[in-house]
Amino acid sequence: MVAIVYASTTGNTEALANAAKEAAGADAYFSTADSADSAEVLKADLIALGSPAMGAEQLEDSMESFYSSIEGSLSGKTVVLFGSYDWGDGAFLEDWKGRVEGAGASVKAVVKAQLTPDDAALSEMKAAIA
Ligand SMILES: Cc1cc2nc3c(=O)[nH]c(=O)nc-3n(C[C@H](O)[C@H](O)[C@H](O)COP(=O)(O)O)c2cc1C
């Protein structure tokens, strides 16, 4: 089972999340970060987490809060990270990757989109989940 949890303020990360959902199939767990159930997410074989760059190369607040709640339980898990940014070249996703690896999980893919994801980013997202 795949779990997809995301935050999005203007729909850009949400577009990646929707592509992931399409690839994940009917039994996927799909939620925004502000209402995600960490126990359900931690049952998944593959955990996909998405956030826009906010603050100064930071996760959006609700994702920071959700991610912090599962960070200590990620050892041995496989994670895909995705998100949208504007001027920072997706540096926040590389920082996030470091945190996830530091928590003992393996990062299968990092999918980045500058602002609205183009077709290449949506395909990359689907491939990362399939
Ligand atoms: C308050 C605020 C802070 C932002 N901080 C960054 C940043 O640090 N680096 C960056 O590359 N983009 C930053 N952005 C741009 C967003 O990450 C970008 O617009 C993104 O596409 C939003 O995705 P979403 O629609 O999924 O929320 C910021 C935007 C806002 C409104």
CATH topology: Rossmann fold
Which stretches of 5+ consecutive residues score pLDDT under 50?
A: none
The biggest sheet amounts to:
5 strands, parallel
Order of helices and strands: EHEHEEEHEHEH
Annotation field: number of helices: 5
Spatial separation of the terminal alpha carbons: 11 Å
- List the ions, cofactors and other small molecules found in this model: flavin mononucleotide
Question: What is the multimeric organization of the chains shown?
Answer: single chain
* Order of adjacent strands in the largest pleated sheet: 2-1-3-6-7
The named CATH superfamily: Flavodoxin domain
Name the beta content range: 25-35%
CATH classification class: Alpha Beta
What structural category characterises the helix and strand content? alpha/beta
DSSP, total strands: 7
Indicate the overall shape. Answer: globular
Helix content: 40-55%
How many distinct folded domains?
1
- What value does the Rg take, in angstroms? 13 Å
Average predicted confidence as pLDDT: 97
CATH architecture name: 3-Layer(aba) Sandwich
